[in-house]
Write a structure and sequence with these properties.
Helices cover 76% and strands 1% of the residues. By secondary structure, it is mainly alpha-helical. Helix 3 (43-50) crosses helix 14 (293-321), helix 6 (94-118) packs antiparallel against helix 14 and helix 10 packs antiparallel against helix 17 (345-376).
């Protein structure tokens, strides 16, 4: 019975994350890219801004901590296992389409975070709240759609945000060190609870310490693997390019099959990893200390750059360049085979998965708490945290295939209202960009505090 339900849910998730949503997401990426005159060209300016202090400006946390929290929720199993799965299903050409998704997704991440800062509100306690729910209510004047987004975010946090990530963390530790999953569940839940109870500042502080360090080590690990077999990198890049536009898949198949499969899985996994258009990152961007919406939008857009253009692309290159994609047919096994060329590679991969999964748990708890606050204030936060931590605990010890598929559906349902707001309010994005970015006034403070 449960297997039949899982099959049905999996089919629904595959359909929702199929062609219709891919067209909507990619169409939004392209539309905003051209309307914003390729805002991607400012990416190095944006990276520089992310390291600058803006203390004393309106907001709760620094731009860097906001970015770290955003990356905490996106840099997870998708960067390591998800990319390899895309290669397993779509061939080496999937790496190219994944990279392209990240490049054009920068414009969408910029736009959604700009709107969330512009339409954020100041709470009675002096803190700030924002995100697509406030954009949809205050910008589109459509409260019922804002409520739906918040509900979808809460359910997604219980599934993709906590249970699935906890399960990935538990499996990684158990397989590498043989520790009992109940012990893993206990300590993971306690540690997550200690941080989550501290609120946004505690979450941001922990993420700012863990994410940059682990991301740097993971990137260095990928670079070392590429350097160990640098003589074949040219052939690897040629293979990825060739298979991205091949009329036939690597193993044969119908005319156009290679390109179609590569694009389908590369784009889908890229979108799932960087969350550009999903509406999650804007929630934490709205809490950042920033002089104006454009300033933080630029900083937030670097999240997609680091997550996909750097992190995911390196994983894809490593999997293809090491030949792991030929000898291992399943995503998780591919990454294990690839990192097996490093001394203590399995332990290194385990630590990366654990760090990324744990910080994803923290990041998603923040997103959902802001959604709870939007719907009914602070009175249910304590109950939400208890339920969330229960999901973390049981996610460590139970199989979560069904949970993953249901979570995929709620992720997609989050994206739809957010993308609607982006398209209808694209004029506001352009107007703000012209005022602060194109006129070179990024340090100017907003005249009106929302």
């Amino acid at each position: 019975m449960l297997e039949s339900i899982n099959t049905i849910i999996s089919s629904i998730a595959s359909w929702i994350w199929g062609l219709p949503l891919i067209i909507l997401l990619c169409g939004t990426h392209l539309f905003l890219t051209f309307r914003l005159r390729f805002v991607q060209r400012y990416i190095f300016k944006a990276i520089k801004l992310s390291f600058k202090s803006v203390d004393g400006k309106h907001g709760d946390i620094s731009p860097f901590k906001a970015l770290s929290t955003q990356l905490a929720a996106t840099m997870g199993t998708g960067n390591i296992v998800g990319v390899a799965t895309a290669v397993a299903l779509g061939g080496p050409g999937a790496v190219f389409w994944l990279w392209m998704t990240g490049f054009f997704g920068i414009a969408t991440k910029y736009g959604e975070c700009l709107l969330s800062v512009k339409y954020r509100i100041k709470n009675d306690d002096g803190s700030y709240s924002g995100g697509p729910m406030y954009v949809i209510e205050r910008g589109l004047k459509c409260k019922w759609l804002a409520i739906l987004f918040s509900v979808f975010t809460i359910f997604a946090s219980f599934l993709i945000g906590s249970s699935v990530q906890a399960n990935s963390l538990s499996i990684a530790i158990h397989d590498s060190f043989g520790i009992n999953v109940w012990i893993i569940a206990f300590f993971t839940t306690i540690l997550a609870g200690i941080v989550i109870v501290g609120g946004v500042r505690a979450i941001a502080k922990v993420c700012a310490k863990i994410v940059p360090v682990m991301a740097l080590f993971y990137i260095l690990g990928c670079v070392v693997l590429l350097l160990l077999d640098y003589s074949s990198i040219d052939d690897t890049l040629f293979l990825i390019w060739n298979e991205a536009f091949s009329l036939q898949s690597v193993g044969g198949g119908f005319l156009g099959g290679g390109m179609i499969l590569a694009a389908r899985y590369g784009i889908a996994r890229g979108l799932f990893s960087n969350e550009s258009g999903l509406g999650s990152a804007p929630i934490v961007a709205a809490s950042a200390q920033t002089p104006n919406a454009v300033h933080q939008a630029l900083v937030a857009s670097t999240g997609t750059f680091w997550d996909t253009i750097v992190g995911c692309a390196l994983t894809g290159l490593v999997v293809v360049n090491t030949g792991a994609w030929k000898v291992a047919g399943e995503g998780a096994m591919m990454t294990k085979v690839a990192f097996g060329d490093l001394p203590f590679g399995e332990v290194f991969l385990c630590l990366a998965l654990v760090a990324f999964s744990f910080t994803t748990i923290l990041g998603w708890s923040f997103y959902a708490e802001k959604s709870i606050k939007y719907l009914c204030g602070n009175r249910l936060i304590i109950f939400y945290r208890l339920i969330y931590l229960c999901c973390v605990f049981f996610g460590c010890v139970l199989s979560v295939d069904l949970v993953w598929n249901i979570g995929d559906i709620f992720n997609a349902l989050m994206a739809i209202p957010n993308l609607i707001a982006l398209l209808f309010l694209s004029g506001v994005i352009v107007q703000e960009t012209k005022q602060y970015l194109w006129n070179n006034r990024l340090s100017d403070r907003d005249l009106e505090i929302n």
